[in-house]
Amino acid sequence: MTSKTAGTHGAVLADTVPEADRPIVQLRGAGKAYGNIRALHGVDLAVHPGRVTCVLGDNGAGKSTLIKIISGLHQHTEGEFLVDGGAVRFTTPRDALARGIATVYQDLATVPLMPVWRNFFLGSEMTKGPWPVRRLDIARMKRTADEELRNMGIVLDDLEQPIGTLSGGQRQCVAIARAVYFGARVLILDEPTAALGVKQSGVVLKYIAAARERGLGVIFITHNPHHAYMVGDHFSVLRLGTLELSAARADITLEELTNHMAGGAELAALKHELAQVGGVDVEALPDEEPEGSAPDTAAPATAAPTTAVPGSAAPDTAAPDSAAPAEGKA
Ligand SMILES: Nc1ncnc2c1ncn2[C@@H]1O[C@H](COP(=O)(O)OP(=O)(O)OP(=O)(O)O)[C@@H](O)[C@H]1O
Ligand SMILES: [Mg+2]
Predict the structure, then answer these.
(1) What is the mean pLDDT of residues 310-315?
(2) Which residue windows are transmembrane per the record (predicted)?
(3) Mutate to test the pocket of ligand 1, among 38, 45, 58, 64 (most ligand atoms within 8 A of CB)
């Protein structure tokens, strides 16, 4: 399998396999300094259509900084940022949106008291009639919002209800459906499951998978390796602003990923400490020098963080026909 693209873009939709091998968004040795604080350094990342790239890392690891670069809020101060193979430097989030990169922030920018359908079109309302008497096309907006939510498998009883009455998980789902409808090719989700319970997290993960099925490239920021592993095709772990691990799904198990996130050695030390306290069940934590996982102070393990192209990393859930519907939308 070669990763060369045919060159004709969008002409032969059925022939999506070579297209899928070209990243939509790519970072090469990218970094960001805030004054003399280096928040991010030497990061390689590739986002492919129809794949979920998970960015993991502890608090302060640089996850938000990374997506702020891609979403146009901040500019990188080192390395390269490419979209469709060309170098870019966004100055506002509008630049990113214009290239099909949509970001769903954790504090969703919704108006709680407005109905669901109104929030769906917030800032991009449908109108009808000629200019002086132009007015909102309410019927069409309601119908479209309803269709689009159903297309993503989201069933709400009543689109007239204020969006503030939906659960956090449901609001995330509406935001995902909205981004898909408005032609996003890349969807960035900043910790969408962080504040959610088990069941609601499951719902959000389901729609992440649905977005992938529709051919979007998804960047899923999380500090939960279990959530990442449920939907991820590629895993990038940040630590103190650098890429500690970049691995395709085929090359890493959930245990290894969890160990990387926690830092096997740190967990073992914690186990030792907690064991002295009493009343804490430490059995499940790994022992000092856990088998098969190098301490995280060693050189970057597993896959070398060079140009992180996962190759044939598609999991069983990623259908080969996934790119077609989203292409038709844009
Ligand atoms: N605007 C800023 N000015 C100065 N330093 C910043 C700024 N934003 C982030 N940083 C620093 O950059 C580092 C990475 O922060 P970032 O917010 O990207 O981490 P994060 O992985 O998103 O963490 P969290 O899980 O807490 O959201 C931190 O040390 C932070 O203090
Ligand atoms: Mg953050």
Answers:
(1) 38
(2) none
(3) 64
